[in-house]
Amino acid sequence: MKITDKGFTLTVILLCCAGFLFLKPDNLYSQSLTVGDPIEDYLRLFETKNDSLLLPSLTIGFFSAEDYREKLDLSNDHPWSYKFFFSKKEDQITKTASSVKDSVDTDSLKIHLVKPQQTVYRISRMYGITEEQLRKWNNLSDNEIYIDQELIVEKPKSFDESQNQTQFDVSENPKKKWSVKYYSPVAKITHNNNYPIGQNDGALWQGRGVNSMISSGAYLSYGPLKASVRPNLIYNANQGFPLSRWPAPEGISEYGYEFSVIDYPQRFGDKSITKLDLGQSWIRGDYREFSAGLSTSTTKLGPSIYNPIMLSNNSPGFLHFFIGTHEPFETKIGNIEGKIFWGRLKESGYFDENESNNFRFINGLILSYSPDFLKGLNLGISRIFVKSTTDPGLSFGDYFLALGPMKKGDGDEVKRLQMSSLFGRWKIPNYGFEFYAEWARNTPANNFRDLFLQPEYSRSYTMGFLKRFILTPNHWLTLHYEMTQIERPRSIEFRPSEPFYRSSVVAQGYTHQGQMLGAGIGPGSNSQKVHLKYYWKYGMFGASFNRIVHDNTRLYENFMVIGERPWGIRNPRIANEVEFRYGLNALVFIGSNVELQFDFYRSRFFHHEHGILPFENPDVYNTNLQFTLRYHLDNFLR
Questions:
Q1: Would you tell me how many other CB atoms lie within 10 Å of the CB of residue 74?
Q2: Mind giving me the DSSP string for 101-167?
Q3: Are 407 and 386 in contact (CB under 8 A)?
Q4: How far apart are the first and last CA of the chain?
Q5: Is 60 exposed, middle or buried (CB count within 10 Å of its CB: 0-12, 13-18, 19+)?
Q6: DSSP β-bridge partners for residue 248
């Protein structure tokens, strides 16, 4: 393993920064999950208490992981139940009703026990009282309540209005208006020995050589206002490797993607990279079930774990303004969750030399529905539009593209990259089994007849299942399979359509800072992955196999060129690049504070097109190693 001096120095610095955690500073806190946190997949194994969608893919960024845990059915024993993150929260304040009983006529008390998802607003509506009355009768200084808390919901006969809140000592309430907490740093180091390989790693692009990232920051709250500042410090050695012998299109950087016009560089220049990314940072205001704010956090959309089609955590987060639900909105027919956002996408420094087109506008809408009449079923729809901000610029109507129809037509008539998807997840209660799927299009059907006759036109899809086997209460085995098809269907031979993630009117395509916003396997690719994991009290061990067909769309479009070999030989097999990726994963709990995560991937690329002569072995190999260190105090809230 060859490490440059600069890479070694920065790696040591990052390890030293992580080392200060063993000093056990006070008040470490985590309000949301970092990219790649194993708790995210683990929480998915449980059922929710109120049939909400409640997937990390939609809601984990809106409230704390602690709140997310509170909404799951964790009544049974499970492998990680002894971890503090899953232990029952100790009573931080005296139960409200009990503290008031001594001063009122106990026979007149009408008590409500707070359940998951309930708020002061909802409870007051249930009993036909005002929020102010509920706060007065229970000596509440604000709207903070807790699961299993007892609340008085009818005015006691002997209640004295003049003594309102005289019994309440604000200094004893740990939930004060101002709150400042610190995020526990997470340190990650990876290494590729031959080629850049990495997926769903957020702002960290894993080039050849050593790559390092450390994340930390602070969480602040004041009443309904909340903010997170959690940047990433990133280093990439970015060592050289053979680029494709097929050049990028004219006008595109020498490091650009071969054949296709898309901001998806093979390599980000020829020098090491050090940068500071804002990471999981945001500011928002809450009102009842709704939130609005600014964010640079990564966003996963839909139920897919490895290759969400519309939005994933494969790229850095982009600056966006959002309005949405931070908890499910209850109706008589089920729960509804949603979000609409407006953001800005940035071009990498290795696409073209045109400074006027460095930014693009993105507008998206996500809605999900969990019906009351069928437990465990969640359905959703998403729509995303990307438009260039160059001449003639954005009109007023462009800010509401996600609320309007997809525009029919081809090429320059459309003027924007447009995608929509339907997704669903069915988690069968008490069986530890779920099936999920996402189906997307980037061109609308002309009518229902067209949709039913050619549903495959301009489509992509991903589907999978997850099955949990309980060997013993504290020993679980999970089997997960997911397949994804991004390759353009063969209907292209008689009916033109844009490839997914590429566009003739948005030159950079569906990317941000040179990385794919959607499925991490990239444009025109397909994937089949199976992952087996074993959970026990000391952590997790897993093994996986992933077959990836890289950009068949590019192959079909350029076969006559790609197939040409020296001496006039054309071999169709040698132009079809397929990767077999074998993986081993482990998570070890060391004591009650340390988590050490290890990921190993060995890839074999069949028919890798990088200047190989026809009678030589065209296969290449790469080894990807990843080490992640997390440290938590005994009273740490993830």
A1: 18
A2: GGGS-GGG--EEE--TT--HHHHHHHTT--HHHHHHHTT-SSS---TT-EEE-S--TT--GGGTTTT
A3: no
A4: 34
A5: buried
A6: none
Q: How is residue 613 written in tokens?
A: 């002569």
Q: What angle do CA 541, 547, 548 make, to 5 degrees?
A: 120
187 three-state secondary structure:
strand
| Model pTM above 0.70 | yes
Q: Is the peptide bond before 156 cis (omega within 30 degrees of 0)?
A: no
Number of H-type helices and E-type strands within the chain: 10, 25
Q: Is the pLDDT of residue 456 over 60?
A: yes
Cα dihedral sign for 265, 269, 272, 275? Answer: negative
With a cut of 80, say whether residue 274 has pLDDT above it. Answer: yes
| Closest among 338, 376, 301, 304 to 49, alpha carbons compared | 376
Are 195 and 218 in contact by the 8 Å Cβ rule? The answer is: no
Question: What is the mean predicted confidence (pLDDT) over 280-293?
Answer: 88
DSSP 406: P
Answer yes or no: are the C-beta atoms of 370 and 47 closer than 8 Å: no
Distances (CA, A) of 435 to 2, 200, 533, 554: 43, 21, 17, 31
Q: Is 297 helix (H, G, I), strand (E, B) or coil?
A: coil
Q: Where are the beta strands (DSSP E) in 245-373?
A: 273-277, 282-287, 290-295, 320-325, 329-331, 334-346, 359-371
Question: What pLDDT, on the 0 to 100 scale, is given for residue 52?
Answer: 53
Q: What is the mean pLDDT of residues 231-235?
A: 94
Q: Is the pLDDT of residue 194 over 70?
A: yes
Count of Cβ atoms closer than 10 Å to residue 107 Cβ: 8
Separation CA 288–CA 146 (nearest Å): 15
**Beta bridge partners of residue 561, listed in sequence order:** none
Residue predicted with more confidence, 43 or 234: 234
CA dist., res. 66 & res. 160, Å (int): 37
For the cut 70, the answer to whether the pLDDT of residue 108 exceeds it is no
Size of the chain, expressed as the number of residues it contains: 638
C-alpha to C-alpha distances, 576 to 430, 570, 579, nearest whole angstrom: 44, 12, 10
The whole-angstrom separation of Cα 416 and Cα 398 is 10
Per-residue pLDDT tens over the stretch 568-597? 444 545 567 889 999 999 999 987 778 999
Show the tokens assigned to 93: 């304040």
Strands 475-485 and 459-472, by their bridges, are antiparallel
